[in-house]
Amino acid sequence: MYYQLALVQLLLLSAIDAAANTPRLLIISLDGFRHDYLNKYELPTLNQFRNQGIRANNGMRPTFTTMTFPNHISIATGMYQEDHGVIHNTFYDRRLNKTIGMSSRDEGQWSDPSIEPIWITATKQNVKSAVLFWPACHNEFNGVRPLIYTSIYSDAVPYREKIDSAIRYFRELPIQLVMLYHFEPDKQGHAYGPDSPEVRDTLFRLDNDTKYLLDRVKEELNDDLNIIILSDHGMTNVTKVVRPIFEKYLDRSAIESTILSGALFNVMPRNGRTEEVLRNLSNIPNVTVYKRDEMPERFHYSKPKHRLGELTALPDIEGQILSEATTNSSYPNKGNHGWDNTLPSMQAIFMARGPSFGKSVQISSLNNVDIYHIVCQILKLNPNPNATAGSLRNLTQIFMPIETSTSTLSSSSSAPSTSTLSSSSSAPSTSSTTTPATSRSTPMTVRTTTRTTTLASGADRFVFHRIFLCVICFVALFFTF
Ligand SMILES: *[C@@H]1O[C@H](CO)[C@@H](O)[C@H](O)[C@H]1NC(C)=O
Ligand SMILES: *[C@@H]1O[C@H](CO)[C@@H](O)[C@H](O)[C@H]1NC(C)=O
Ligand SMILES: *[C@@H]1O[C@H](CO)[C@@H](O)[C@H](O)[C@H]1NC(C)=O
Ligand SMILES: *[C@@H]1O[C@H](CO)[C@@H](O)[C@H](O)[C@H]1NC(C)=O
Ligand SMILES: *[C@@H]1O[C@H](CO)[C@@H](O)[C@H](O)[C@H]1NC(C)=O
Ligand SMILES: *[C@@H]1O[C@H](CO)[C@@H](O)[C@H](O)[C@H]1NC(C)=O
Ligand SMILES: *[C@@H]1O[C@H](CO)[C@@H](O)[C@H](O)[C@H]1NC(C)=O
Ligand SMILES: *[C@@H]1O[C@H](CO)[C@@H](O)[C@H](O)[C@H]1NC(C)=O
């Protein structure tokens, strides 16, 4: 009798313990959300959110160059662009003889095991994740994929549909990490400029959608969810377009490949023509031209010789763009980004709230390469040893102090533990198929493509473990009474 009781207690405790120690995290990236939009507009939900949780008064510093694809990979890997190798939105890889962009299928570019997005770190440590529209999430990393991912980059899906999916995953599956990317307010910022009414309206819509998210988290997840809302870079007015770069300053036949989008112009000259190209680039007004090895160290933008060209021209003036356009009207963007990652206009947003975070904590700023470590801390993951660009050194105050967090957890442990157990035990029936993500309610293009065998069996093992615990508990209880 004593033995059985002890067994029941042990099992119940371990079940409760497992549930109570199962922190969950939603990361939302809102593309091109310039940091000071938050000060310029009285966005009620977002401003209340950051005042209640972690508020970064000067925003979050992107990595250089301040573009979307590279910064999402820096956020996900905790690495500088020169180390993870995604050096622009689109670039040519000389080793693979392939142009790589946000929609590229994996064809060898993710085979270096030391480059590991956080969802891969999590998957390898048996923490389940869903990654929606985050750049590169549709790729296999060294043979590993998250439990759920969208199969192609798209800007056709409304923010609320992505929110609906995230909530559903947390409710129905034993998922601990959801990462969700949305393409606004970047799109409006490019088309109409950062100060435009179009951007303002988009920000208020995003704010309202965030309210919808928080209401659902409160009602359906008992508010037991950590949420980070961040962005990849800022946005500024395009004030001067220098064009056309080619006919006017450079002979195309001297160039093997270029990267020209956003503020940076990176050039791979053909053999033997580097000095000549350097001289010509230097004739462009208001730019500084660097050889790859002479790029300022703080940019961390010189290592990948197979992807970066030998020369980089950077505008000296924020807002200046170099363009291939040959007519005045053929550079349509009113807003852009890509300039120096220390400029105030290029700073991104960061705010966080939830049971693992402190309340009403203000910090000055953080680096986006720190996010990887914040996620590891919350989900109790061992970080990839190559993720050395960021750290938690200046961020210890953003987490809930240990004493407080254990008491919070134990006080709320009974409710979430039962709900976690029941939701996870109902999961296998729906998730044993290859499409746990798609449900009748969403016509969205989110497709959960087939999982690898290891992942599927990993997910099932997790659920089986929980069911096994429950069954043992009931059997033990039965014999006890
Ligand atoms: C690179 O790929 C193209 C086709 O995509 C091919 O024509 C060319 O020969 C390849 N170059 C090298 C060096 O392999
Ligand atoms: C916010 O969204 C709700 C629906 O969730 C809608 O009814 C309301 O009109 C929206 N408010 C604004 C200001 O757009
Ligand atoms: C950007 O351009 C708009 C419209 O031309 C102007 O009103 C605004 O002041 C500019 N913003 C900055 C930061 O220069
Ligand atoms: C450099 O500029 C000169 C003068 O415009 C031009 O003749 C020459 O072809 C250019 N060379 C390269 C490599 O672009
Ligand atoms: C831009 O270049 C022009 C011509 O070289 C020069 O007169 C001007 O001072 C430069 N502006 C800045 C802000 O450097
Ligand atoms: C193009 O713009 C420049 C100055 O920005 C102006 O001098 C020139 O006349 C314009 N050309 C046309 C065809 O509009
Ligand atoms: C990862 O770290 C190892 C050991 O320091 C190093 O040899 C390797 O180049 C690193 N990989 C990357 C992509 O930085
Ligand atoms: C921490 O903050 C101090 C003071 O703001 C700064 O000098 C230091 O570089 C920061 N360290 C890291 C690792 O970010």
TrEMBL record:
List every stretch annotated Disordered. Answer: 407-449
Q: Which Pfam families match?
A: Phosphodiest
- Report the domain of life of the source organism: Eukaryota
Q: Which residues form the signal peptide?
A: 1-20
Q: Which InterPro entries match?
A: Alkaline_phosphatase_core_sf, Phosphodiest/P_Trfase
The record ties this protein, via SUPFAM superfamilies, to:
Alkaline phosphatase-like
Bilayer-spanning residue ranges: 462-480
Q: Keywords assigned by UniProt? A: Membrane, Signal, Transmembrane, Transmembrane helix
Q: What is this protein called?
A: Ectonucleotide pyrophosphatase/phosphodiesterase family member 5
